[in-house]
Amino acid sequence: MKLKALAAYVAVVTLSAATAFAQTTRTTTTTGPNGNTATRTATRGNGQTNVTATGPNGQTATRSTTHYAGGNSTTVTGPNGESATRTVTGRGTGNVTATTTGPNGNTYNRNTQRYAGGNSTTVTGPNGESATRTVTGRGTGNVTATTTGPNGNTYNRNTQRYAGGNSTTVTGPNGESATRTVTGRGTGNVTATTTGPNGQTATRNTQRYAGGSSSTMTGPNGNTGSRTVTGRGTGNATVMRSGPRRSVVRHR
């Protein structure tokens, strides 16, 4: 009896393993109103995914993806036989590289390194020129993103988060900067103030209440516009817009 039970157990394990590694194929056919059809067939299994799409004109495109530890490699081939490949390596290591090669043989490379509080990404084009974006301070409430283009020009964005809002400053390669500050989040009375590199300021204040909200926008010249919503949740909402020149009321 024990021998029979052992044999049955081995048979179940063998069948389960064969099922786990078996390939599955699914074909989808779409037919339009004119009777033309398009077909897509996908075969998955053993770390490999192959997709073939055939259009109503009979032309076929394929996509083949091989999955392996730390990444994958995908090749797309068009109906004219030209192909492009994208390969990813290093997933799970904190240092991921994606390489894309087009049908003309040109190659683009993107490398991302992740570390505590941020990451650094470098994109390199087929001519060897590169651009980099570095992020630091994630999780600290003070995040800085610095982008450097192939010409060496640098753009910087710093965001500081605090209770009820945040403040973001963007600085261009010429040293000029613009700032947007938000206060009052979570209070029902939120104000956003934007100051451009020329020192001009625009504000938007939004007050929220039961059934609606009211927003007032003020430009650098002092002109104002407003949007008021009432009756939300009642099935009879009213939206009133008022600008420096005219007012509009809409019911919905």
Question: How would you characterize the overall build of this protein?
Answer:
The protein is mainly β and 252 residues long. Helix content is 8%, strand content 58%. It has one helix at residues 2-20, and strands spanning 24-31, 37-45, 48-54, 60-68, 71-77, 83-89, 95-101, 107-115, 118-124, 130-136, 142-148, 154-162, 165-171, 177-183, 189-195, 201-209, 212-218, 224-230, 238-242, 247-251. It has a 20-stranded antiparallel beta sheet, with no helix packed on it. It is extended, with a radius of gyration of 29 Å. The chain starts with a helix and ends with a strand. The model is unreliable at 5-20 (pLDDT under 50).
Quaternary structure of the protein = single chain
Low-confidence stretches: 5-20
Approximate shape: extended
If you compute it from the alpha carbons, what radius of gyration comes out, rounded to the nearest whole angstrom? 29 Å
Give a concise summary:
8% of the residues lie in helices and 58% in strands.
Task: Based on the model shown, name its key terms.
mainly beta, 20-stranded antiparallel beta sheet
Mind sketching the topology for me?
Elements: H1 2-20, E1 24-31, E2 37-45, E3 48-54, E4 60-68, E5 71-77, E6 83-89, E7 95-101, E8 107-115, E9 118-124, E10 130-136, E11 142-148, E12 154-162, E13 165-171, E14 177-183, E15 189-195, E16 201-209, E17 212-218, E18 224-230, E19 238-242, E20 247-251
Antiparallel strand pairs: 1-2, 2-3, 3-4, 4-5, 5-6, 6-7, 7-8, 8-9, 9-10, 10-11, 11-12, 12-13, 13-14, 14-15, 15-16, 16-17, 17-18, 18-19, 19-20
